[in-house]
């Protein structure tokens, strides 16, 4: 038996029932406690009318009252012993009593199965009731390929039952309807009212033995699941099977709001442990008295409650080796969250495949009770079980104006599949009825308005004097400014003192806690307020600097009268004194501007040029973004946008890889929104924390190829140049090249060209039957790498025609003739290029173009390209991945099952993000470091509070603290995030981190130079999901170790096709496999084509592709 950890000795007083357990005290106590509700309920109604008192702002007043009502009444069970009697007295129900289930008797387990923890001289096994779901079903009939569930109800071991009327049977009801768990046995075990431990374990063992031995069901096809105390009994049964080996382990475990720690209530009562988290807002009222009733007040070994049978979260590491896949679902607002996190950590540490589902704003037993905050979480928790949920994918053209107005709204097609209801195109969707199963709607977009210079007309307001009406741009790049008009604002703010003063710290103006000047320097020494005297008022700025406010701005509506509706406001010192910008912005909104970008709110940094350019970019793009959102929301009723409903939540992917509420999204955050989803998708599905092999993400889309690198954390850049516009905003470090599946092909001046022009979604490619240009996809089609027979007939004006390969061939024949005519006059040239050679020549050019950004991210930065894994995705990724990997010397390619829509899949996996930046303008010295750390602490508290409001707390929040640092006298600042040993106990070592980052970036250090901190930043990340389970590398290791990798059977070949490959030419009998027909562990040898509904994968000669649960893993020679 696994050893129990050390624990306090339980005092004898805690093992006795309280006085109110005995008559006549019991009746009096119950009466007083119940009657007090006459006063408490009205009080609660008033108290919870304030949203700030509700624990979660999304909760309703009625929900809060019901939870406190339950919490007030519930202790009566433990204190007074009013729990129902033992089920041994239950009789078989009468005909007609059961609507959804039928009744069965479960005989006790065989005597030889009872040993160890289950053996007790006083407690014996008895015949107990069970209920089979659905009514009339045979548990052992698994001809439909489903699994059998053994459901164990909760109720603190003191109440509840296994009948269909008990609330927790909602779990069984939904699993039966929404999963492959088509048959469920619900156990009604003995309660602790008159049957102490191990009665409950004996009953659970009897039910499991009934399935395995009596009905002869394969244990691998049994899932044992439970809620609340039922979850505790599930883990107790699993521990017993694991240690005593009386029967094989089941195929899986599912725990819903499980009570895992039966010892902590004694520790709390003895003052040796803190109360559980969230006890003030969760309705669950645990008590050590309930556990006394479970084991009996005369039990001579009460410390068993601290052992792994009763407290599975306290087991020793190594206690869960070889446990089956386990699903744990809890609410983030419930008091049992911490012990569940401890169990999950133990399971993962022992290599168990765990899915940890945490539902926002949900409390204990949310899945069972209608009156508590649960409506959305209940459905989501069941669907989130990885083996049960069904992932639906509909891939659409981003633009198809001839058939639908808006691609996201056209997602109605998924609703049709889920609900079975027909939804007419153009019909306004009712948010509540249509989305009762949806938790969120997530969007990402790449606004091409910046690239195409088709943004919104806007004006720039800037401080009078410095601009001289010249465009605000870096001096090395002079593109046309984004704004159309610049107007100077007659305001004046200056800084007191100057940084180059050798005695800056000594001469600085000092302020008291109220912000009033207490001293200053006059030049010859201290003299009153010194430099603080003079025209205007001296105040302390946001950066801590002394600021002299000399002149404020005046009100004007001139620009609005000229037709401008978008405005960028960039005042010189607004980073530290934003009041003038805010005042101007307020006036602008009052006179009718629909959008105002204040630089101090967007980017509170010192440098006015990057702050100004970024602000004008935001004013240029945000109105376009909100026009797009207006079109999207027009497809739904008003409830989706007004923010009054709990779900669905509309979220956008930011360029930094974090999710943002739609009403907080801006054009500045949208520039790499689309590609960012892909980075999140491949990072979370390809990275292995144990192996730590860096991954190159290759996203080959229609217009471009996006390349990024992941080695355990997202690589973020804070300054990027797009279309000549240098922007300061956190973005994932993504290198883009204008070559993709839709890149136009041409032969000019003796050169094969692929891009940079692109066909776009409308009219599309030549083969789309809309008179589009010749592109890379047409070339792949003609080389046999895309097969028209496997594409849906959705092309042409009618959306009912197949790909037109003849049109592609006719267009290429003209190019082939042009190539041969060009080279025909060259005596050194080959006599004639064949059709395939010309077509493949364009593929080679495209492949080499796509390799360039990969080399820039690896070789140019000192990384060996060949030591990476290539994660290929995007619509065209599978057609090019093998050849690109060979060019780069990469040997392993990962292609996710959803690789063609991985950017969208990444949205489902992304985290919430919130960050705050503030100016600093100080030196990084030992004297200043405490103040910097204090300011970071303050920002972190604000970030955590914001994430808490969004439903993220504790271990679900990760915080990154950064300083924007540079050497004095230089212009290049680096945003520094300490890592590893740079995070010391006494605080972050930003100096060490800065020197490391600077050396890596520039190759040298400016020794002896003072370091300046321009800005401070704190970024908070709220984890929206916990784990995807076993990594692809672990899975491949497991398959190899078990000798489970086998060559795909010949009968798995769907067809043969002629495909052109480099060096060997046409292979007429290239096998074609359907991905969904291959089994996990089956291996395909190249040359081959692997196809599913959304992608085509080319496996080149010499390569081997092995199918995993979620990936196709290709190994190159």
TrEMBL record:
Keywords: Membrane, Transmembrane, Transmembrane helix. SUPFAM superfamilies: alpha/beta-Hydrolases. Residues 931-1112 form the Acetophenone carboxylase-like C-terminal domain. GO terms for cellular component: cytosol. GO terms for molecular function: 5-oxoprolinase (ATP-hydrolyzing) activity. Residues 150-367 form the Alpha/beta hydrolase fold-3 domain. Residues 389-592 form the Hydantoinase/oxoprolinase N-terminal domain. Residues 611-915 form the Hydantoinase A/oxoprolinase domain. The chain crosses the membrane at residues 30-50, 222-242. This is Uncharacterized protein. The lineage of its organism: Eukaryota, Fungi, Dikarya, Basidiomycota, Agaricomycotina.
